[in-house]
Amino acid sequence: MKIATYNVNGVNGRLPVLLKWLKEAQPDIVCLQELKAPQERFPIKEINDAGYQAVWKGQKSWNGVAILTKGLDIIEVQDSLPGDPEDIQSRYLEVIIDQMVICCLYLPNGNPYPGPKFDYKLSWIKRLQKRTHELIKMELPAVIIGDFNIIPEPEDVYKPERWENDALYRTEVRKAYQEILKKGWTDSIRTLFPEQTVYTFWDYLYKAYERNAGIRLDHILLSPYLSNSLQSGGVDSHVRGWEKSSDHAPVWIEIERS
Q1: Is 147 annotated as a binding residue?
Q2: How far apart, in whole angstroms, are the C-alpha atoms of residue 80 and residue 57?
Q3: Which of 25, 30, 36, 61 maximizes the CB count within 10 A of its CB?
Q4: Is 84 a catalytic residue?
Q5: 203 annotated among ligand-binding-site residues
Q6: How many whole angstroms separate alpha carbon 240 and alpha carbon 238?
Q7: Could you tell me which residues are beta bridge partners of residue 33?
Q8: For 139-159, how does the pLDDT look when each residue is reduced to its tens digit (9 = 90+)?
Q9: Is 149 annotated as a binding residue?
Q10: Residue 166, annotated ligand binder?
Q11: Among the options 52, 113, 147, 218, which is catalytic?
């Protein structure tokens, strides 16, 4: 089974790129972030025509998450991260597919640091930690997947010394990410490529993609009840080079399902 995540940076404006990639990659489950579209403007007809069904949580102009499946039933569990009923930003979607819990997230960027946006990011991460701990205790096969807006380690960023006071790389954020892993979650891409440079995002400025001056922001975490099923994975970095592409590239893994 192939599971992927892709921050599309505007699902309608980049729909041709998304559809082209879906046809090429043929993932079974896809988590999308940054739809930048209200609920009623999600392109469900085109998604259906491509062979996928979907659930989504839109938001006008900003944020938005969706989960697509091909030939698999999808049951929505919740469309917001528990812990703050006043949080109206569309950043989390949790479903059950093939007896697995799939949690698609678009974690807050947090910049500028310091400030209220960074405080919101830290509080959001605390809520996420609580949910990940609950899933571990329930002994469920689960996947936490999406754009984490977290650079975990120095090897995950081009010239890390430039990022020390950026909200993506702040010590507090990286420590929180490691605490999730210590509870039993597996960073699938880093597990598959322990020594290699792996980036998932390249800024539009300064020819970052051409220079491979990237960062790794998009992660796929597996619960202990799935980690042994990990077979392969990668980043479709060539998609970032397509015309009118997102500044993120799709990230995927393959797991063995009985």
Answers
A1: yes
A2: 9
A3: 30
A4: no
A5: no
A6: 5
A7: 7, 65
A8: 999 999 999 999 999 999 999
A9: yes
A10: no
A11: 147
CA 165 to each of CA 74, 226, 251: distance values in angstroms, whole numbers, following the listed order = 40, 35, 26
Give the domain range for residue 154: 2-255
The CATH number of residue 229's host domain is 3.60.10.10
Count how many domains the chain has: 1
Gap between the Cα atoms of 154 and 198, Å rounded:
11
The 10s digit of each residue's pLDDT in 185-224 is: 999 999 999 999 999 999 999 999 999 999 999 999 999 9
When the pLDDT of each residue in the chain is averaged and rounded to a whole number, the result is 98
Beta pairing, strands 142-147 & 100-106? parallel
Catalytic site includes residue 187: no
What does the pLDDT read at residue 255?
Answer: 98
Cα 156 from Cα 64, distance rounded (Å): 25
Catalytic residue among 6, 106, 113, 177: 106
Task: Find out whether 153 is annotated in a ligand binding site.
Answer: no
Query: Is the peptide bond prior to 224 cis by the omega test (within 30 degrees of 0)?
Result: no
**100-106, strands of its sheet edge to edge:** 74-78, 92-97, 100-106, 142-147, 218-222, 186-187
| β-sheet with 65-69: strand ranges across | 53-57, 65-69, 29-33, 2-7, 251-255, 230-235
d(Cα 245, Cα 20) in Å, to the nearest integer? 11
The alpha-helical segments, DSSP class H, found in the chain are 15-25, 44-49, 116-137, 171-182, 188-192, 208-211
Give the pTM: 0.98
Q: How far is the C-alpha of 21 from the C-alpha of 43, rounded, in Å?
A: 16
Cα distances from 47 to residues 20, 69, 110, 128, 224, in angstroms, run 11, 10, 31, 29, 32
